[in-house]
Amino acid sequence: MFYVYLIQSEKYETFYVGQTNNIDERMKYHNRGKCTYTRNKGPWKIISYKEYSTRSQTMIEEKRIKKLKNRQAILKEFFK
Predict the structure, then answer these.
(1) d(CA 75, CA 80)
(2) What domains sit in the chain, N to C, each tagged with a CATH number?
């Protein structure tokens, strides 16, 4: 399975949307400072995720959600 996920910085309360096939490993990656955007904004906690059967579906959905640029619209996408 593949996932589009929403994480939030516990320090700054900012959001980050990403996609992966292993949420646990991806969270470790973010919290170790390995991702450029999330590097100095952690620790991060997972807020929600959506499950898909193919990577191409997750990539399309991640791109669509990232275009929203509005905190409330992003939250609405994950909590429909």
Answers:
(1) 9
(2) 2-78 (3.40.1440)
CB–CB of 6/74 below 8 Å?
A: yes
Asked if 49 contacts 3 with a C-beta cutoff of 8 angstroms, the reply is yes
Query: For each successive 10 residues of the chain (80 residues), what is the average pLDDT?
Result: 96 93 96 91 95 97 92 90
Question: Which DSSP string corresponds to 4-49?
Answer: EEEEEETTT--EEEEEES-HHHHHHHHHTT-STTTTTS--EEEEEE
Which pTM does this prediction carry? 0.91
DSSP bridge pairs for 44: 9
CB of 62 closer than 8 Å to CB of 50 = no
Of 61, 14, 74, 56, nearest to 38 (Cα)?
A: 14
